[in-house]
Every structure is written in structure tokens, then in C-alpha cells.
Amino acid sequence: MCGCASDSEGASPKPAAPPSFLDGRRSFLGALLGVGSAFVGGLLSVPLVRFALFPLLRRTTELKSSLVGAVSEFSALTAPAMRTIQIEQVDGWRKTVSEKAVYVTTDEDGQFCVLTSVCPHLGCTVPWNKEKNQFICPCHGATFTKDGALISGPSLRGMDTLESSVQGGQLLVRFQYFRQLVSYKEVIG
Amino acid sequence: MAPPLIQSTQTDESNPSAPREPGVWGWLNRRTGLDSLLRTALYEPIPGGARFAYVFGSGLLFIFISQVITGVFLALYYVPSADHAHTTVAYITKSVTAGSFLRSLHAYGASAMVIVLLLHLSQTYLYGAYKGRRELLWLTGCLLFALILGMAFTGYLLPWDQRSYFATAVGTNAASEIPWIGESLKRMMRGGTEMGTLTISRFFVAHVFLIPACIFALVASHIFFFRRAGAAGPSTENPYAPAQKAELFYPRQVLMDLALTALLIMGLGLLCFFVPVQLGPPANPADAQYIPRPEWYYLPIFQWLKYWHGAASIVGILVIPTVLVLAVVVLPFLDRGVERRPWKRPVAMGAYAFVLFALVGLGLRSHYLDRHDAGVAQQLAKQRSEEEEFMRKPFEPELSSASLAAANVALADPLAAKGKTIFEAQSCNGCHGDGGVGTAAAPALVGIAAKLPPEQVAELFKHPTPKMTAGGMPPIDLPPDDLKALVAYVQSLK
Predict the structure, then answer these.
(1) The complex's ipTM?
(2) Interchain proximity A125–B427, CB inside 8 Å
(3) A32-84 pLDDT, tens per residue?
(4) Which ranges constitute the DSSP H helices of B158-253?
(5) Residues A45 and A90 in one domain
(6) Of the CATH numbers 3.30.1370, 2.60.40, 1.10.10, 1.10.760, which one belongs to the domain with range B404-492?
(7) Distance from CA of A129 to the nearest CA of B (A)
(8) Which positions in chain B touch A10 (Cβ < 8 Å)?
(9) A138 vs B430: CB contact, 8 Å cut-off?
(10) Chain B residues in contact with A28 (beta carbon < 8 A)
(11) Residue A4 within any structural domain of the chain
(12) Dihedral of the alpha carbons of B131, B135, B140, B142, in degrees to the nearest 10
């Protein structure tokens, strides 16, 4: 008696003995169904895989460039100009907007140089001291030139420059944080 | 007649002298008994042979599996809280690759499930396939029906848009109409008197953990009871002792079941691709204009409830539905005749036609009333256009609570706003961090208002304690107005 039919309490006439699934002669349809189902299953899993891999294939965390100001504002700089920029950080479906102070200076060639105000020593905000014509950190007294080069104090390197660009007459900057208490510049976020 | 299954099991598993099947397939079979498993699953005898009328059960199983898979994937991005639910669903719909497609598959899948469920139920009823020792098969089916409707109800709220919020508000309100326990039931579902973030949590847990667990268990029992009783076959068959020549489930019935599955895949795929499910603007509980409408499968109940008010409502809301549900549930216990042919069961067929016409009629009536009330039709059209407008807008990330914009809202006080510029000009943020969040060099100032009164803060600014001085805090020398502004700002930090 067939195993499945033995479960039923009815007594229907049994069909002919079913072939084994191991029987190669009868398994052509089975193989066809197996391959067909695998193909359709594979096709259906395409959107699932694309959905799951989205954060790997697209940028889901993003630091947007921040506007510092119009280039014309910085055409005749004699001292570093402080500007507060808005930093927009996108993280998946949320974003964080924060403010940070940066300094705009020009080097000998007249190229813009944007310095972060975060002290490379311990992260305090470094203000520009007009009287002494240098940056002086209020926390531990590190001093820097108007280009951010280290003069004295506990810091192991000069102030950090940020990636900046001019687009359509606007000065843009990508704000980043750098590792503190080291002599080299390493991005940490 | 040869007992092939038992014999093959013995050859495969327990008789070492039997010829061993070669290859990977043979090895796998000796280890797992896959062949006998497949035989048990696929060689189910169907009295009277395979028919397209029997395909709906497999169709339901297929949609259920599809719902489980798409649901698990949607949970990769979904967050069940009133703050984030709508944003994350908007993110899935507008940003994530294939997100709109998968969400549509899940949402339309729910409707497809209800349709195929009604077809499965109708087939069983019309064929009298609940007869002949199939009471538990029928009962588990009834429970599964209720659970599927529960899945549709709990899942509907999760996007937390206007449509889902108000539909669920109406749905939970309807529950409160039940005498005696209604109010408690409503509060139980909502997690309080009002709808809110606790409601989402409850619906999410029911939708993702509780109801699916029950469905898994009941589907297993349903299939077990089905196999135990055997396929009922055509309506001309005796429910206890089928006499017609049986055909095995494999291959013809399998092919017919697969035909429905292919139809479902094609239909749902095309629908989801060309008419993806919309998402409306986020739920706004204060919107008094919004006219909620349930999904199509709840429309008949929605319309029915409109007719019952006051003292009579106990009849319409409790007595009639309870009698109807009980009648359906106890059907195999009441209707014990062996007659299965529909044309010989006029009462059963009459009842079926009556309920079907009543449900369709109520649904159409609700639709008709909405279309012919100018005010309602206009508002519903407005709601639809608001949904379309929301869908056209690009995805806007949610502003995190740590954001500046959020902080600036707290600075509506001009004195505190002035204090903020002083805080930055004096480089207080140098050590205490932007927004006073604290750094390695100095402690956070956030929440100081709860610890110190403003006068004491001002005093500490002018004359820091020795401990503060040791930490590097200088005394602040500012004009009184500026000091007052600075204190106001520091006190506003949250």
C-alpha cells in the first residue's frame, strides 16, 4: 500500500505503483520542473538581492560639500576670515546638520586655503588672535601662523587644511575630522 | 498490488544488500531518505483525478511564502516607531533599489492572499469538501482565515501614512463598539487610549512575530489534517469512502498548481512594476478633514457598521456577526450528510449566495455612496492627489535630533540666540564642544538647567571653582547683558 494513501481513512482504488524519483527514465519531467523552478526562483530573487545589496552598491552615507561663501568675499584677505559652515551628513534615511567654524586664508599664489578650527592637539576650537597675528588655542596654548603652520605649543602638527573647491563663484569645502595628538594628518570622519 | 513506497524505503535505507543507487543523488538519498519524502509529498492520490478547481491551497502557500520573504527583506530598512516608520517606508519606496517593487509585492500580495483565500474557501464549500471526518481541517482553515485578515489589518498600519493611520483609527474604534470588552480591547490594541508609537510597536510585534508563528503552526496542522483525511475529490465522490479512480498529485496536479503560481507571479509582477503601491504624506493625527477608507476586503464590514447605532447596535455589531462566524465554524459538525453535489444542497447554496451577494452588495454600496456624495468624493480625490504629490517629491532624509536645525528651534528666545554667538566668539565651544555637548577637554553643559539655577551659573562663570580653574576654565569677564545672554544660552542646552 502506498505510504500516503495509508494515511487516509478512505478506500479509493489505488493507481498504478508510482515510479521512484531515482528512476532516470521517468525523471525527465522532474528535472525539467526542477530547472524551471530554479530559473524562476533565481529570477524572483534578483530584486531581493538588489534590495539587500543597495547600501553596498550605492552611497548611503554621504558628507555633502558645504558652502563657505562667495569667492568675492575673500578677494582681499589680510587676515584669516572665520566663516561658520553648515555640514550636512546623510546616513541612510537620516541626516545630521551641524555647524563648524572654518578659516579662509590665501597662500602666496593667491590660492584659497580653508583651515578647520579644530585644534590638532585635543580638538578645542582655535580662534584667530588679531593683536598677535596668529592662531592661539585657548586650551593648551598651541600657536599657529595665518597659514596654519605650527609655531609653538603641545600640538604635533599644524592646523589641518580642508578639501576646498570653487564652483560658479562659490567657495565650497568638505569638512572632515582628523586624528588628534599625532604628527601626521589622518581622516577619522 | 506491490507496496512500492515501503519497499523502496527498505531498499534505500535499511537493506545493505540492495543495489546502491550511484552518484550524488543516490548518496544524498541514502543519507536523507529524500526519495521517500518526495514520494510521500507528491504521490498523494486524488480521487477522480487532477483538476484546476484544487489549485488554490497551493496558491495560498506560495503567496504566504512570498509574503514571508518580502516581509523579512522589508525589515532590513523598516523601523517600527512613530518617529521613523514613515521615513523608512519612504526610503524603501523612493531610494532603495527595487524597494518600491518589493513593497508593492508585499502590499498587493496581501490582497492576492485574500482573493485566493476566498476562492479556496468557496471551492471547499461548494464541493462539500469539509464533509467526512474533515472537521479539524475546516476549523484550522477558519482560524487561518482569521489570522490572514489579522495580518492584513496589522500590516496596513505600519507605513504610518495618512491612509494607514486613519484606517487603523477607524478599525480600532470599531472594535470598541463591542459591548463590555470593546473599550478594553481597543486600548489593548492601541497600547493606550490614543494611537501612537506604542500602537506601531504592538501592530509590528503581532504582524512580524505572533501571527506568523500561529500561521506556521496552523498551516502545518492544516496540511497534516488534509493528508490524514485524504483529498476529497469531485463533488460526486463519497466523503468517507472515495470510490473513483485516483490519480496521483504528481505530475498533473503539480503542473496545474504551478500554472496558478505562474499566473500569480506574472500578475503580481506586472502589477507591481507598472502600478506600484503609493505612499501618502506622513500621518497627521490633527487632520480633521481626512476621510478614512479601509482596504477593499474590509469595505463590506465598514459599510455594515454604518447601519447600526444606539441600542440596536448590539444586534448588528455583536449578535449577527457572531452567529454568522459560529455558523461557518461549526458547519462540518452541523452538515453531516454525505451529499456533496451543490445542486442537491439548496440550503447550503442559498446561504452561500446570500452571504456573497450581501458582502458584494455592501462593498458596492459603500463605493457608490462615496462617489455620489460630492463633498466626500471631492475630499477623497484631494487625498489621492496629495498621495501622488508626495510620491513625486524626492526622498528627504529625516533630520536627526542631534541636528543644528533641531537645536535652533529651541533658540526661539532671542536672548539665548545672542548667547550662542557669544558662546562661539568666546571659544567656549573650543573646550565644551558645539552646542555644549562636551569634549575631552571639558565636560558637557547640556542639561545644566536641571542642576543649577541661572544665578549660580552666572556666578560660576565669573568666579570658577578651584576644580574648574584646574581644568582650564578661565573666569569670564563680560558686560552684564552679554553674561545674561550667555547664561540664557547655556541654560537652554538640552
Answers:
(1) 0.82
(2) yes
(3) 988 999 999 999 999 999 999 999 988 888 777 888 888 888 877 788 888 88
(4) 162-175, 182-190, 197-205, 211-229
(5) no
(6) 1.10.760
(7) 12
(8) 47, 132, 229-230, 240-242
(9) yes
(10) none
(11) no
(12) 60
